[in-house]
Amino acid sequence: MRLIKGLVMAVGVLGILVIFALITGFYLYSLSPSILGRAVPVAVTADAAQSFDQKLESADSQIEAAVEAGEKREVNLTVTEEEVNSKLVQMLAEGQLPLKRVLVNFGDGYFLAYAVFDAPVIDAKTGTIGRVDIVDGKPKVIIDEFNLGKLPVPDAAKIRVEQLANLVVSSETAGIPIDINSVEIANHELIINGTTRTGE
Fold first, then answer.
1. Across the chain, how many H-helices and E-strands are there?
2. pLDDT (0 to 100) of residue 160
3. How far is CA 87 from CA 3, 6, 80, 84, in A?
């Protein structure tokens, strides 16, 4: 009889601990990540979003012209924080992203991204700091720090975020006939330099 009573009480205590852990987890999950404290607000404008689109169109035209001529040509693309954030805000307004808020900063050799994902019950607030390396003519995102609210995040989660980021980059750049030579992040700008392929 005491054994059964002890088991019931143990289960009850475990249940209380689980509920407490869930409440604590949800609370920490809902808080802003520490990375947000290092982010700098960026002004957004419709003109900057339009400039972003025009720069991408110009780079695409240069690549197409080089491919049609069968020539290897250097193509450079420089986008600013204002242009990137303005375009992201425009995409948010058009419902193209599953986010409620997003902010991107370009530091000295690194990028910082803060995003609030539209999640059921409680929105997920994330912060990411990373950089971009070049591997075999393709950009590779390296995640140095990842926050999910104030929850302690294991290294496995950071690795998974890095894998997902690179999957997106790979899918977006697949089929573009260009080898990326360098990606530089400095002075609040992202500068990409590449050489078109001739198909030989």
1. 4, 7
2. 86
3. 64, 61, 11, 5
Six token digits for residue 65: 């012209």
56 lies in the same domain as 81:
yes
Buried/exposed code over 170-188 (b: 16+ C-beta within 10 A; e: otherwise): eeeeeebebebeebebeee
Amino acid of residue 154: P
Most distant CA pair in the chain, distance: 88
Q: Which domain holds residue 185?
A: 33-196
Residue pair 113/132 in contact by the 8 Å Cβ criterion: no
Question: From the CB of residue 149, how many other CB atoms can be counted at a distance below 10 Å?
Answer: 21
What Cα–Cα distance (Å) separates residue 198 from each residue in 67, 76, 182? 6, 17, 19
Structure-block tokens of residue 184 = 């530089």
Residues 7 and 63 in one domain: no
β 138-148/178-186 pair status: unpaired
Same domain, 137 and 75: yes
Residue tagged 């995040």 (tokens): 153
Is residue 152 domain-shared with residue 190, that is, in the same domain?
yes
Count of CB atoms situated within 10 Å of the CB of 143: 19
For 99-154, write each residue's pLDDT tens digit.
889 899 999 999 999 988 876 767 778 889 999 998 887 889 998 998 887 776 77
- CA distance readout (Å), 105 to 131, 145, 163, 167, 188: 12, 14, 21, 22, 7
